[in-house]
Write a structure and sequence with these properties.
Layout (H helix, E strand, L loop, with lengths): L2 H9 L9 E4 L1 H10 L16 E4 L7 H5 L36 E3 L11 E3 L15 H5 L11 H8 L31 E2 L2 E2 L8 E2 L18 H7 L20 H7 L26 E2 L8 H9 L14 H10 L41 E4 L7 E3 L1
Parallel strand pairs: 7-8
Antiparallel strand pairs: 1-2, 3-4, 5-6, 9-10
Length: 383
């Protein structure tokens, strides 16, 4: 967005950042005033009309995952996303520059590499089934083994538990489960550009379709530090004036399929394939806000201000970014009294990672080692 547009919108009350930060105006103020809580004669004595800040964390989601087809409604404003780059069209289908997002598969057998040798995919790894079998709202109501339990009675019941949602959103707590679908296998609901989940083109694909509605549960992408660094494929020789970071962002599905996450020193499973990690091409899926997906986030972005060039404080997973959000810094491991201490780093037997090796009373290791296990292509030694 242009600086003038940003300034104008800030003066009109609001902010939504890329991960997303939003400012609340008159409704929040009225609610506080009505409650009598926090009311002060100084409430209106602020340098700007902004009085309250709410931070909304879009956990495990990239910018394009949600806003790939976002279009600013104010003339002169711009956004950097898949649509503006011509990678996809407004209907979500491949655009004239789709090849710019072609993904690669790497070769990394010796030690951890941020930019390993690579070749292009011709077809993405399969998009696999993921997410809860039974919708969360149904589970809270004591129901199980169902992909949906939506009814007027259940919406009324779940409203008593989740009272922050508008009435029109309650049904989404009760629908979209994957009960009956084969978890970790090619997703029969996914269809893109005339292809099924096992034959997707080698770039981004729209998640939603007539066979996979917006409220459907889907797999979650990897969100851990070493994986994310490697997925971006950064190297000094890649840097250009147009891309000074030197990051090509073209190893997303390969990293997810070669290592996944949370194996914690366990040996690579036998007969390991490109869906064994349970990830497949999950990282390449996007929603289409131009066609009605993510309506609330789209509303915030259209009515407030969005910074499409800021994504997160730390290139890493959930824990690091929650800490950075609260402390504006990283926290060190300590003895509980403020003294720095080396985290537990006991040796791990890959064949029995939860069992202490001889001479040790613990198998806990909290220091990661992204070097590949012997004989594997990028399957981390300790994750």
């Amino acid at each position: 967005m242009t600086t003038s547009s940003l300034s104008r919108r800030l003066l009109n009350c609001a902010v939504v950042s890329a991960t997303i930060m939003s400012m609340v105006g008159m409704q929040t103020e009225a609610a506080f005033a009505a409650s009598g809580y926090g009311v002060s004669n100084n409430d209106g004595k602020t340098r700007t009309p902004i009085k309250h800040v709410i931070v909304i964390i879009g956990e495990n989601r990239s910018f394009d995952h949600v806003f790939a087809t976002f279009r600013p409604r104010t003339p002169g404003e711009k956004v950097s996303n898949l649509l503006s780059k011509g990678i996809v069209k407004v209907d979500g289908t491949p655009g004239p520059n789709y090849r710019l997002a072609t993904q690669m598969q790497g070769v990394n057998y010796d030690s951890f590499e941020l930019a390993p040798p690579k070749t292009a995919y011709t077809v993405l790894p399969p998009a696999v089934v993921g997410g809860s079998a039974t919708p969360t709202g149904c589970e809270v109501l004591g129901l199980s083994n169902t992909a949906s339990c939506d009814s007027a009675a259940n919406e009324a019941a779940v409203a008593k538990i989740e009272n922050g949602l508008g009435a029109g959103y309650l049904k989404y707590l009760l629908t979209g489960g994957v009960y009956g679908l084969p978890k970790g296998q090619p997703d029969p609901r996914i269809a893109y550009d005339g292809k099924d989940a096992s034959h997707l083109p080698p770039g981004p694909f729209q998640i939603t379709s007539s066979t996979n509605p917006y409220d459907a549960y889907d797999a979650s992408p990897v969100h851990r530090l070493f994986q994310m660094w490697q997925q971006l494929d950064c190297k000094k020789s890649h840097a250009t004036a147009a891309n000074p970071s030197g990051c090509l962002a073209d190893l997303f599905p390969w990293v997810e399929d070669s290592v996944g996450s949370n194996y914690n020193g366990k040996a690579q499973p036998a007969a390991f394939t490109n869906i064994s990690s349970g990830e497949g091409s999950t990282s390449m899926g996007f929603y289409n806000v131009a066609r009605g997906d993510a309506p609330y986030l789209n509303y915030l972005a259209q009515n407030y201000t969005m910074s499409d060039n800021y994504h997160q404080a730390i290139l890493g997973g959930t824990g690091a970014n929650h800490i950075a959000l609260g402390y504006a810094d990283a926290l060190f491991f300590s003895d509980g009294h403020g003294t720095p201490k080396t985290p537990p780093n006991n040796p791990v037997n890959p064949q029995a990672p939860g069992t202490p090796v001889s001479g040790y009373n613990s198998a806990l290791s909290e220091i990661e080692n992204p070097n590949p296990q012997p004989g594997t292509n990028n399957f981390y030694t300790q994750d």
